[in-house]
Design a protein that fits this description.
Layout: E1 11-12, E2 18-25, H1 30-57, H2 63-76, H3 79-119, H4 137-163, H5 173-178, H6 182-185, H7 189-200, E3 204-205, E4 218-220, E5 225-229, E6 244-250, H8 257-265, E7 271-277, E8 282-290, H9 299-303, E9 307-312, E10 316-322, E11 328-336, H10 343-364, E12 368-372, H11 389-396, H12 400-413, E13 417-421, H13 426-438, H14 447-460, H15 476-479
Parallel strand pairs: 9-12, 12-13
Antiparallel strand pairs: 1-13, 2-8, 3-7, 4-5, 5-6, 7-8, 9-10, 10-11
Helix pairs in contact: 1-2, 1-3, 2-3, 3-4, 10-12, 13-14
Length: about 550
């Protein structure tokens, strides 16, 4: 095992902690839209101001500073609205910090690769595990300049991290940069301005358990009636008692509607958010709530009924069903998807492929799905695959983060667990030990199908290899069984495998004459030479 890195331990991925559902606000009157826009603009300005104050505090932030900011916002809105704004500000600041850490990790990976390649002689060939030297002195010089640039960026990012300074754009950095490329984005300045303002609005409220229907700021009754508690400066727009505005539109959540109704009937907390889709000109209401913490299923329980091993690729999932002993069952299954086009199209493709995968997993009766714990941070750097642009685009196009979140949430709804395994050597060892033995004239085995078997066996706790080497023939009694064979508790572990021919013992031979089979001896050592001990190279009982 020299030169191989240590494999990480497999684990059961925790289930989702929250639920979100959405419905459209139909048939809004012009007055309704006017009020929603006024509320969004007013509270959006308060959120921008609060975010600026939080970013200025950096590491000096404290609970006293939080309380002071909330008191200032309460004067221009309400206590509950101020609490929702400050909480959203802290969540946004924390997200920016995590993105900053990921950015530093990416820079560090590129710097490490550049330093390694620059230390090698020009023209030296690389290996499978590490890239070689650069092709020419000119390329070496250009990469040395890039190393200096990356080191400067990394030093600046580390300094900002230590100082607690983050960069946040309310409305999104991508949409902000679109302002400089309106022709390419096929937008007019007015259309971009509408989208930019809508993204910066803030019409949201956190839920409160014990309050009427679980939310005092944005209240939705079981009949679907929506009312909003207006901020103090906009109280003159109210059309109901206590400074509230009731919309003419009603909502009816088709998905999880019964679960939502049970929560608001019991006055349990439900958070709401209202936003405008400027492309379609539609208003939507999103309801979300937290789920109680559910204890993760033990790993042994997840392995009890076998496993579905899934290999993630750029255009399909390659899945294989394995029993609890690690034996492949049936034929491989592939679930294709297309990751080209818009973000909505890609997300729909992933959801459709995962739905088919989960339905098949339920039909075969397994309790868990094994998948690789992928992280392409070191693979996405152009320093490692600078000339292989198509490969870099291929790796970057695999939505690992979104895929994990989708699979965990969708599998939890069907009572399936997800087991994450170390992705090291799964494709290599799967092709080496499983691709050729399982290939038949009627079954085409790809490298990805074999990787699915390797992933499933690793999730089950078995080695990737089919069988270990047998004990020495002259020490069969002392050497014992193969290390990968079934344990002492499994019935039939001492039994032999069926013979390769379908002819029953004592039956007619191929030439039509009956031939008597010699009697088997009690021990292997004393067995007649005519007795054949055949063991299937693929199937085993443990």
């Amino acid at each position: 095992m020299g030169g191989l890195r240590k494999l990480a331990v497999s684990f059961v991925v925790p289930g989702p902690a929250g639920v979100a559902i959405r419905d459209r606000l139909k048939h809004l009157t012009p007055q309704d839209e006017k009020v929603l826009r006024a509320v969004g603009e007013h509270q959006g300005a308060l959120a921008s101001r609060d975010l600026r104050a939080r970013c200025a505090d950096g590491h000096d932030h404290s609970t006293d500073a939080w309380a002071a900011r909330k008191r200032e916002l309460t004067k221009e809105s309400s206590s509950r609205i101020a609490g929702a704004i400050t909480k959203a500000t802290h969540d946004q600041w924390a997200l920016a910090r995590r993105c900053q850490a990921a950015y530093m990790k990416t820079l560090a990976a590129g710097i490490k690769t550049l330093r390694h390649r620059l230390s090698l002689p020009v023209g030296e060939k690389g290996t499978k595990r590490a890239a070689g030297g650069y092709h020419s002195r000119g390329e070496w010089f250009r990469k040395s300049r890039r190393l200096a640039a990356l080191e400067a960026r990394h030093a600046a990012a580390v300094a900002q991290w230590q100082a607690g300074r983050v960069r946040v754009v309310r409305g999104g950095k991508r949409l902000l940069n679109t302002r400089h490329h309106l022709t390419q984005a096929q937008l007019t300045e007015e259309q971009w301005r509408q989208r930019w303002e809508a993204e910066r609005w803030f019409i949201a409220a956190d839920g409160e358990s014990g309050k009427r229907f679980g939310n005092e700021t944005i209240r939705v009754t079981p009949d679907g009636e929506v009312s909003i508690k207006l901020p103090a400066p906009l109280a003159h727009l109210a059309n109901a008692r206590y400074g509230r505005y009731t919309l003419t539109a009603t909502v009816a959540f088709a998905h999880r509607g019964a679960e939502w109704a049970d929560r608001i009937t019991a006055n349990r907390a439900v958070a709401y958010r209202i936003h405008l889709d400027t492309e379609r000109g539609r208003w939507y209401l999103t309801a979300s709530w937290q789920r109680p913490a559910v204890r993760t299923v033990p790993l042994e329980t997840a392995r009890a009924r076998g496993m579905i091993g899934v290999d993630t690729n750029a255009d399909h999932f390659a899945a294989y069903h394995l029993d609890r002993h690690g034996n492949p069952v049936g034929d491989p299954h592939r679930f294709p998807y297309d990751l080209s086009g818009s973000a909505g199209h890609r997300d729909a493709q992933i959801r459709h492929a995962l739905t088919r995968l989960i339905n098949w997993a339920k039909s075969v009766g397994v309790a868990a799905i094994g998948i690789e714990d992928l992280d392409f941070t070191t693979e996405k750097t152009r320093e490692k695959h600078g000339r292989r642009k198509r490969f870099r685009q291929l790796v970057s196009g695999i939505p690992t983060g979104k895929l994990k979140a989708r699979l965990v949430s969708m599998a939890a709804e069907h009572g399936l667990s997800v087991v994450a395994v170390d992705p090291a050597y799964t494709s290599l060892w799967g092709a080496q030990h499983w691709q050729k033995p399982l290939a038949t004239p009627h079954r085409k085995m790809s490298r990805h199908d074999a990787a699915g078997i390797a992933i499933g066996r690793r999730a089950l706790g078995h080695p990737v290899r089919r069988r270990t080497a047998p004990p020495p023939h002259d020490r069969s009694d002392r050497a014992g069984h193969r290390t990968a064979q079934a344990g002492p508790g499994h019935r039939g572990r001492e039994g032999t495998r069926p013979p390769t021919t379908d002819r029953p013992p004592g039956g007619p031979s191929p030439n039509g004459k009956r031939k008597r089979e010699p009697s088997a001896s009690n021990t292997v050592r004393n067995a007649p030479r005519t007795q054949q001990w055949v063991q299937d190279s693929l199937m085993r009982t443990g």
